[in-house]
Here is the input.
Amino acid sequence: MTIDRALVAGAGLMGHGIAQVLAATGRSVALYEPDIARAVAGRDRIAANLKRSVAKGRLTPTEREALLARIQPTDDQAAAADVDLVVEAIFEDVDAKTALWGALDRIAPPAAIFATNTSSIGIDRLSAAVGEARRQKFVGMHFFSPVPVMPLIELIRGSATSDETEATVRALAADMGKQVIVSADRPGFIVNRILMPFLGEAMRAYQEGLGTADDIDAGARVGLNHPMGPLELADFIGLDVCLGIMRVLHEGFGQDQFAPPAVLVELVEAGRLGQKTGRGFHTYPRR
Here is the structure.
């Protein structure tokens, strides 16, 4: 199947990056948010990203303008009526995702592939929102942040996902310069199944007073040769996102290592969500 036109639902941290990498392959992209101002803001973030690329000599000004011209902000779900691919990149909430998928299933062409950027929620659970015929074209396509930089995509097949759908997503990922790993449809998939217990244990160490946030992060950076400490990484991901993923994992497996630490719950309830709010385990901009 050929993918020429796509709709990305969600223009936030992940969605605007997905729209950018799709448009960079020459495809036309509708960037959807129910509030047009948020869709425009997502395109503006892409414009800023590309401006930096021009300054670094990675793009010419002409290439930047051509790429931006392929991205159209919209607040109208009817933009899905003539696309070959829909990528959903809204927040990790089952009800919100299934409501969106149910609406788009009634609009998008029958041949369109539906790909969810969920980082933890089961594909069969989400694909239940669409008609049975669509489920063979429903797949997990989990990007990593920042999308234009990170070279990995987790491909997650649901029980009904067809071989043709997987092959099309693999070809698209190759066009975007991404490496694909395939995960079974289990809570958290591969990367977050490994990552979240690590972040959770670092949070528990901090909660117990084992070390300061700076010392715990330095221990991972220097002692384990990690590029970023676990508390820094949690702040970068978003503490609300981490909490949502941990809850999915804990619900799915029921094991203590997946339980969200109390300090994480407290920070999220206090509105300290990490870099995006200026405070999490650390304060930003860090000096």
